[in-house]
Specification:
Number of strands of chain A: 10
Helix content of chain B: over 70%
Structural class of chain A: alpha/beta
CATH topology of one domain in chain A: Rossmann fold
Number of domains of chain B: 1
Oligomer: heterodimer
Order of helices and strands of chain A: EEEHEEHEHHHEHEHEEHHH
Radius of gyration of chain A: 20 Å
Distance between the termini of chain A: 47 Å
Distance between the termini of chain B: 44 Å
CATH superfamily of one domain in chain A: P-loop containing nucleotide triphosphate hydrolases
CATH class of one domain in chain A: Alpha Beta
Strand content of chain A: 15-25%
Chain lengths: 258, 254
């Protein structure tokens, strides 16, 4: 599958299959197209060449109605939560249910409170999103993402900026969602350590393609220099840390001449 | 060189016009479903309409008072100050109420719409709805657009009413025009045609201002600067378009 945005190649020949009922980690450096991959899966953008198939359906060929039906089977946890700011926590979690079903309000209430309990925020149901910390907002967003019982749950950088306790809770939640509900989980992140504790399978996304796949342990012991650099966090190596630029000395001297 | 720059401006202008027109079609397509959600719609009529009431009523009162003062000064030179009621009523109903209401609406409700939707875009709320298989065009844009379209004629009517009261306040109470003459002359001269001209204008302005506000917010660059720029564009474009459309409509009605 190929994808380019504004002339910049994001994916060049990406080939990836995600197993049902497993926790799959997509790792890679920032700006490497991890979030774009989720956009391709959810049909927000489409591949230039090749195809993205979800539940056996080519996302790009679906009409609006079919695409929306497909999305109802998917859940996505946004990095910033993306809660609707004009309603409280309860209504945020209830939102997809109210939009997609005619369930009576008493049933919705039970459903929402159960999901909020699962993320430990039943007591915060009356709060507005602005009153939540970042970690709480992400847990509410998680409750919202699972309220429709999706078959696939995608997490976009779920560990960024969390304190150790929230981090542990989120990790356990991802594991629980997967083992208790059988939800296929795709976790996009660059936190190698955290992913290693939960992922069944990891893929490393480097320069628009899958550089390595396997269990976290297999990746760590990989012989490839690029994979090794990423797993151990080295600035020097095949993966460029510096944005392409002219020589520093040359640039400084040139500017002082002006 | 300058030719190609003008060409670019022209192309960009055409592109924007096309994008707004397409957006209007999409909104109209979603309007019927939006009407089926009275809760959402009423909230937006409240936001665009009820929350603009104070600014509309205050402005209406002052505009009416100025109209009373200027009208009296002008008319008494010809000894026809009894016609003050006619002048004020026709001026307000046909021209001042729809235009000034639209300008105030753009500044008060239009900016609120643009920045709200723009911020929803910037904080991924619209994308989150897309992912939850809820069309933000239907849930967010269409109710706000319709709310504005419905609120504008109501606000205009209130502006006219208060304005006329303001003109009466100055003309009759302050300047001593006979009260009976003021009202009877007004009643005699204003016919349905005048009222409908104002209402048609306000409806058209309502569509134009709400469309621009929702469009700018929906397509705002998802950054702080982008939302700010979009809000400014809403006021500028709404105001200029209102005045332009006002001329066109006036010419059509005469």
């Amino acid at each position: 599958m190929h994808y380019a945005i504004g002339g910049r190649q994001i994916f060049t020949g990406l080939d990836l299959t995600i197993g049902r009922g497993r926790i799959t980690a997509i790792m890679g450096p920032s700006g490497g197209g991890k979030t774009t991959l989720l956009k391709l899966i959810t049909g927000q953008v489409f591949a230039d060449r090749g195809s993205v198939r979800v539940f056996g359906q080519d996302v790009a060929t679906l009409g609006r109605r079919a695409l929306y039906a497909l999305r109802q089977r998917l859940g996505l946890l946004f990095q910033n939560g993306a809660l609707l700011t004009d309603m409280d926590v309860f209504d945020n979690v209830a939102f997809p249910v109210r939009e997609h079903s005619d369930l009576p309000e008493t049933l919705i209430r039970k459903l929402v409170l159960t999901k909020l309990q699962a993320v430990g925020l039943r007591g915060a149901a009356h709060l507005m999103p602005a009153e939540l910390s970042g970690g709480m907002a992400r847990r509410v967003a998680l409750a919202r993402a699972i309220v429709m019982d999706p078959e696939v749950l995608m997490y976009d950088e779920p560990f960024v900026g969390l304190d150790p306790i929230s981090l542990g809770v989120i990790l356990r939640l991802i594991k629980q969602m997967n083992s208790a509900l059988g939800i296929t989980s795709i976790v996009v992140s660059h936190d190698v350590e955290e992913l290693a504790t939960i992922a069944d399978e990891s893929h490393l996304l480097l320069e628009g393609r899958i550089a390595a796949s396997g269990t976290p342990e297999q990746l760590r012991t990989s012989g490839s220099p690029a994979v090794h650099q990423f797993m151990t966090g080295g600035a020097e190596g095949p993966v460029a840390f510096n944005y392409p630029a002219t020589d520093l000395t040359e640039q400084l001297l040139a500017e002082s001449d002006e | 060189m300058s030719k190609s720059i003008h060409g670019n401006y022209l192309l960009e202008g055409l592109r924007r016009l096309g994008s707004v027109a397409l957006f209007l079609l999409q909104l109209l397509g979603q309007s019927l479903p939006a009407l089926g959600r009275p809760g959402l719609l009423i909230t937006q009529i409240y936001n665009a309409g009820a929350r603009s009431l104070i600014i509309i009523m205050l402005s209406g009162l002052f505009v009416g008072m100025v109209l009373g003062l200027q009208g009296y000064d002008l008319l008494q030179r010809f000894g026809s100050e009894q016609a003050l009621g006619i002048a004020a009523a026709l001026g307000l109903l046909r021209e001042l109420a729809p235009v000034i209401t639209a300008l105030l609406f753009a500044g008060r409700a239009g900016t609120a719409l643009t920045s709200e939707i723009g911020l929803m875009r910037a904080t991924d709320q619209l994308t989150a709805m897309e992912i939850m298989a809820v069309d933000p065009l239907r849930y967010v844009a269409a109710p706000r657009f319709l709310g504005g379209v419905i609120a504008m004629p109501l606000l205009t009517a209130i502006f006219s009413l208060i304005g006329l009261y303001g003109a009466q306040l100055v003309g009759v109470q302050l300047m001593g025009v006979d009260q009976g003459t003021f009202w009877s002359q007004t009643q005699g001269a204003v016919d349905l045609h005048d009222v409908s001209e104002g209402m048609v204008k306000s409806l058209v302005f309502g569509v134009a201002c709400s469309l621009i506000a929702v469009h700018e917010g929906y397509h705002a660059e998802p950054t702080a600067e982008g939302v700010g720029l979009a809000t400014t564009r809403t006021v500028v474009a709404s105001s200029v378009l209102t005045l332009l459309l006002d001329y066109v409509l006036t010419a059509a009605f005469l």
